[in-house]
Structure formats: structure tokens, C-alpha cells
Design goal:
about 90 residues, mainly alpha, 2 helices, about 0% strand, rod-shaped
Length: about 90
């Protein structure tokens, strides 16, 4: 199916849905509105949950990075001290 055919089919479905909504009783319209509002609320909740989970993971990643960074700095200082001691010992010998 070509893109133009898919677009026409989608437009046709949209037109049919619009026509059915216009011809619906007030109770049926309310059901549709409730369904759409419920779907919107669910999407909003899902988006907020996803955002909070991403922020939590970001915080954990930053914490792990800082921990590894401090470990690397400590190792670097230890290595520097070891090298300085060896240089001093070599100069004294």
C-alpha cells in the first residue's frame, strides 16, 4: 500500500469517526469524551512516571560517576606519592 493510499484510508476513518460523533446522542458523546479524557490522564501519568524514573536514574549515574572519580583521584595521589618516594630513594642511593 502506498503512502497516499494509507493517508486516504486514515482520512476516511477520521471522517467516519467525525460523522458518527456528530450523529451520536449526548450520552454517547459523553462516553467518547470520558474515554478520551481517561486516555489523556493515563498518558500524562505514564509520562510523569517515566520522567521521574529517568531523573532517578540520572541521579544514580551522577552519584556513581562521582564515586568512581574520587576513587581514581585517590589512586592517582597514591601513585604520585609512590613515584616521588622512589625518585627520592634513587637520588639518595
Amino acid at each position: 500500500m502506498k503512502n497516499s493510499s494509507k493517508l486516504l484510508a486514515l482520512l476516511g476513518l477520521g471522517a467516519l469517526a467525525f460523522w458518527r460523533y456528530k450523529k451520536a446522542t449526548p450520552e454517547e458523546k459523553q462516553k467518547v469524551n470520558d474515554l478520551l479524557n481517561n486516555a489523556k490522564d493515563n498518558l500524562t501519568k505514564y509520562g510523569n512516571d517515566l520522567k521521574s524514573k529517568a531523573e532517578e536514574l540520572k541521579g544514580k549515574a551522577e552519584e556513581k560517576f562521582n564515586d568512581l572519580k574520587s576513587q581514581a583521584e585517590t589512586k592517582m595521589e597514591e601513585a604520585k606519592e609512590t613515584v616521588e618516594e622512589k625518585v627520592e630513594n634513587a637520588q639518595q642511593a
